[in-house]
Automatic annotation (TrEMBL):
Entry-linked Pfam families: Peptidase_M76 (PF09768)
Stated name of the protein: Mitochondrial inner membrane protease ATP23
Cell inner membrane listed as a keyword: no
Listed InterPro entries: Peptidase_M76_ATP23
EC number of the protein: 3.4.24.-
Composition-biased stretches (Low complexity): 7-23
Family note: Belongs to the peptidase M76 family.
Physiological role: Has a dual role in the assembly of mitochondrial ATPase.
Organism: Pichia kudriavzevii (Yeast)
GO terms (BP aspect): mitochondrial protein processing; mitochondrial proton-transporting ATP synthase complex assembly
Keyword Plastid: no
Phylogenetic lineage: Eukaryota, Fungi, Dikarya, Ascomycota, Saccharomycotina
UniProt GO molecular function: metal ion binding; metalloendopeptidase activity
């Protein structure tokens, strides 16, 4: 799922990642086993993941467990979504089950958008809108999460929105039609207000 023509939506790492050392086959297998354990736990017990499963079903879709896979990713990212292939979780970049929970929730927002709104993933604005919603609604930009990483460098009141914009742009910049980071930021800014304010299927943003 990692090739550019297939990987249309990716979740960037929560912080800058150093180049990973070469992993042995045994280490890769161990990381994938751990990821599968985290995934199975979240699919049984995570309120957000279970809620998203139900909402996707209500929208006329179905999340097959076979389409949520743990893989070793060559590029630094937490995961990705493809409308046909499903969700990829990057076992070598996900450090714990709580990051996996946010990542899986993020990708399920994409799945919901794809089911409910028939997203054109090759349209930059469509892509940016779903990235904004996924970053905002998944929990990855929760105030305390951002505060722990950026204490003293942000104002709490605007921290959530800044995080959402930053992470959405980091995802959009990988789109084949995006020229560079300035272009990504421009597209995100253009659609930010309407997409950020659309919290479906949630009643509100739980940060």
């Amino acid at each position: 799922m990692s090739s550019p023509e297939k990987q249309l939506s990716t979740t960037p790492p929560q912080q800058q990642q150093l180049e990973q050392p070469v992993l042995s086959e045994e280490k890769k297998a161990e990381l994938c086993r751990q990821c599968d354990e985290y995934k199975s736990w979240m699919m049984k017990y995570s309120p957000t993941v279970l809620f998203m499963f139900d909402q996707i079903k209500n929208a006329g879709g179905y999340v097959s467990p076979n389409k949520i896979t743990c893989e070793i990713c060559p590029d630094p990212k937490l995961g990705g979504f493809h409308a046909e292939m499903g969700i990829q979780l990057c076992a070598n970049y996900i450090p714990d089950k709580w990051v996996l929970n946010d990542t899986l929730s993020h990708e399920l927002v994409h799945w919901y958008d794809n089911t409910r709104f028939k997203v054109d993933w090759m349209d930059l604005r469509h892509h940016a809108c779903s990235e904004i919603r996924a970053a905002s609604l998944s929990g990855e930009c929760a105030i305390m999460t951002e505060f722990k990483k950026n204490a003293g460098m942000m104002k709490i009141s605007k921290g959530h929105q800044r995080c959402v914009k930053r992470r959405a742009a980091l995802s959009v910049v990988g789109h084949p039609k995006c020229k560079d980071m300035d272009h990504a930021n421009q597209i995100v800014d253009e659609v930010f207000r309407s997409c950020f304010n659309d919290t479906r299927p949630f009643e509100m943003i739980y940060s």
